[in-house]
Design brief:
With 137 residues, the chain is of the alpha+beta class. The chain contains six helices and four strands, in the order ααβββαααβα.
Length: 137
């Protein structure tokens, strides 16, 4: 157990195992909206770099739905740094950002258009619908 971590390694593992990687509330919200707007898509295509959350194959466009904390967004929630085990978390978020950038670069190189929708941007549905329509049309 790290000095600054309040959990044992087994407890930390159990906590992290409960964190969902797909079918999160923001992702489900975006999927419902896209479907209501008439768009059809595929989910989490593992043959594409980064396994995008929503894939629109005919349009060659993908959307990633990022949690602000987990992907290091510059909003208040994403900028929040945990006080416990701070070194671990800053390294983890940095790795996530590097992984995201590499996946997006590989997708762009393969000719895909990419949009990243942050968790904090999902509060205003009308603006989100307009953004989605502008990106996909």
């Amino acid at each position: 157990m790290s000095r600054s971590d309040v959990f044992t390694p087994e407890q930390r593992s159990a906590v992290m195992a409960r964190v969902k990687g797909k079918d999160t509330k923001p992702e489900l919200k975006l999927r419902r909206l896209a479907h209501a707007l008439g768009y059809r898509f595929r989910l989490h295509r593992k043959d594409l770099p980064g396994s995008p959350d929503l894939v629109f194959p005919g349009r060659r466009k993908v959307i990633f739905v990022h949690g602000c904390f987990w992907h290091g967004h510059d909003c208040p929630r994403g900028a929040r740094q945990p006080k416990q085990n701070a070194e671990y978390w800053s390294a983890k978020i940095a790795r996530n950002r590097q992984r995201d950038a590499a996946a997006q670069a590989a997708l762009a190189e393969a000719g895909w258009k990419i949009d990243v929708i942050w968790e904090c941007e999902m509060k205003e549905l009308d603006a989100l619908a307009a953004r989605l329509t502008a990106f996909l049309d």
